[in-house]
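I am still learning, so can you show me any protein sequence you like together with the matching structure tokens, please?
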Amino acid sequence: MAFMSKYIRPEVLTRISRIKFEPNGLVEGTLAGAHRSPFHGFAIEFAGHRDYVPGDDIRHLDWKVFYRHKKYLIKQYEMDTNLVCHLMLDVSASMRYGEGDAQKLLYAARMAVTLANLIVEQSDRVSLTAFDEKVVSSLAPSNSLAQLINMSEMLDKIKPVKKTHIGPSLMDLAARAGRRAIVVILSDFFVDLDDLNKAIQRLRYDDHEVVLMQVLHNDEIEFNMPGTIRFVGLEDDREIDARPEDTRKAYLEAMAEFNGRLEDIANANRCERLVCDTSRDMAELFADYLNARLVRGLW
């Protein structure tokens, strides 16, 4: 399907295919998975089988089935664990900035589908919610490969034209997320930071792990543009003619202050923040990020 190739890059998947996606802490679930359970002392009951996936603990293989049918099947039990990851994607007008592969929304959408693929490949569940001023569209958690097709199809229909109001969308997720999960927010975070802080506090109160993936174009990071440029607001009607070299110092100071506040919010709520420059190779970005988390003993 053409729209899937737009969001899934084989070279990225190949680079990160051997890296495990683990939660920071304990997760809850109903099917056997690779993650540690927060429950101790509970009786568990046999619930069924699933196909063996490379990396599964062989202690859970049903050897009776193997000797009888020559099939490798994993026994599933109630109260074992599986991971649920909720992907929250900002599809507001400011995410339109950039051209081609460096456009913020396209880059963030590819990151979302890549993460979803990684999660589904390890038999865990992932959801996707697109939001601007409110929730635009969403998919319930699933560990089916069809989820990747549904995500790509959903993303291909999105029109980023509205402003961002992040609080209500995160509060909506908090109300329906249920048990502990990982919440990954992909956005430029050009939002009301007090509003964002309150929403993150609610998610953390419910023991969700929250990861902020701040997707920025290199222009927004470096502000290194020659000549006189007309800046057109993507979320309002303002237009400003300016020479970036004349305003670069003031812009970088303002951006540093903004990012400092965002980092303070992340630290205060014990969240992770990753700056994603859309000019950077995505395979390299993901490999470095996931390996760093693995070394730190997080995911």
